[in-house]
Amino acid sequence: MVLEEPKAVAPSPNAAVKPADEKRKGATSAEAKQSTIYIDGQFLPESEAKVSVFDHGLLYGDGIFEGIRFYNGRVFRLEEHLDRLWDSARSICLEIPLSKEEMTEALLETIRRNGLRDGYIRQVVTRGVGNLGLNPMQCRHPSVIIIVATIALYSEEVYRNGLTVVTCATRRMSAAALNPAVKSLNYLNNVMARIEANLAGADEALMLNDAGNVAECTADNVFVIKKGQIFTPPITAGALRGITRSVAFEVAEELGMQVRETDITRHDVFVADECFLTGTAAEVIPVIKADGRVIGTGKPGPITGRIIARFRELTREGDTQIYP
Ligand SMILES: Cc1ncc(COP(=O)(O)O)c(C=O)c1O
Description:
Layout: E1 18-19, E2 36-39, E3 42-45, H1 56-60, E4 63-71, E5 74-75, H2 78-91, H3 100-114, E6 119-126, E7 143-150, H4 156-161, E8 163-167, H5 188-200, E9 204-208, E10 214-217, E11 221-226, E12 229-232, H6 243-254, E13 259-261, H7 266-270, E14 274-279, E15 283-290, E16 293-294, H8 302-315, E17 320-321
Parallel strand pairs: 8-9, 8-15, 12-13
Antiparallel strand pairs: 1-7, 2-3, 2-7, 4-5, 4-6, 5-17, 6-7, 9-10, 11-12, 11-14, 14-15, 15-16
The site of pyridoxal-5'-phosphate has 14 residues, from α6 and β14.
């Protein structure tokens, strides 16, 4: 079923991640409608969208996910997200029970049923129901879940004024243990780092790898700018091959600059002229302080500003149209 295209919905600037519509205390009648969630071929109201307690996604974090944004009635970089989901699946020997075309249709239809033009999609594939042993051979049917939400991780003020980061003691897990390139449901490494940032009163945590070089933040890639040159850690440093990261590469090139992938230390962050983070949820966001050191002038820098402006333009031209 294809629904009518809705009127533009303004994203709420101060909200954290929340379902498309929530039946919360104090919700207005317009907000009282539940969001619709896709689970294994069914579209269910969120109160009925449930998974088994024997799903290994819950018991062992055995599964994969993607976070995707849509803007202006179009999904942004859908193909790249699907490719990365399929790569994650292949790496952990998980067979996604849909083709990419079927997944795309399920995803678009979930957005349509939630009636949004701007928002965030959480796409999850779990190993499925098994027994209490961790052997994935027990799990015969992986589950596919698609959640549509409105989301704004930070207020517009943070995008204007920048955020603070602290280096955390928790190291980014090494590729030899669990490759950070797999976007798995096992995010405890990142959660531990996030807790450190919270305890330190910072907005984000800078995660180092075992060699002591910067890998990434808890859900964002890191860029520094020095004397007009842009640098970011290579994937081999433990950074996710971020899709927003690749958009930043494209934008930099358009602006006549190249991003150099090279090892970065905390020192490089401290002495940078500018620093910014990229991620689907956070988008492109300036960093103005790291471990108490003021970065550059302490204000979002001019190159970061140009990258954010162009990024925002590009998001309006997303690739996959949601409504006919
Ligand atoms: C650990 C980690 N690093 C970086 C990113 C940014 O990647 P993307 O721009 O594809 O969202 C994410 C978010 O998906 C992430 O979870």
